[in-house]
Give the backbone structure.
Amino acid sequence: MLSKTYKSIVNKITHKLKNPTMNKVKSLADLKKMKEQLQSKIELREKGEDPSSRLQVKVAMATCGIASGAKTVMEFFIDELEKRSIDAVVTQTGCMGYCYAEPTIEVQLPNQEPVVFGYVDNQKADEIIEKYIKNGELVDGIIPMNYNTIENK
């Protein structure tokens, strides 16, 4: 029995093949490219089903973050985590409220509380990957949590 994700993707492929206005597969390379794109989407959806069991990196991509270089930092995390074979979900989020410390990221190791880092550039991102993500070793740049959630009151 196929999962909902797989059924959805099969339906999309079927739709693309039946719809003449869609790009046609003209070569084996086109077919391989389509397969890679669809497998990437499947993997992303499967990772999103149980995010607490995976490393999560959230990059603040509000206007202040983007202006400070958050897009470059996000791309660095995506590329480097993949190169280092670290299973992670890298996503963007809105403002975290730390505009003075942009670019900011939140890193949540599996089944642990999240940690927010400020002033993250590619060099700091590399240090976070090597020390904090791989070894659980704290690094400079952590922004202390200065609020209580409703659950903590």
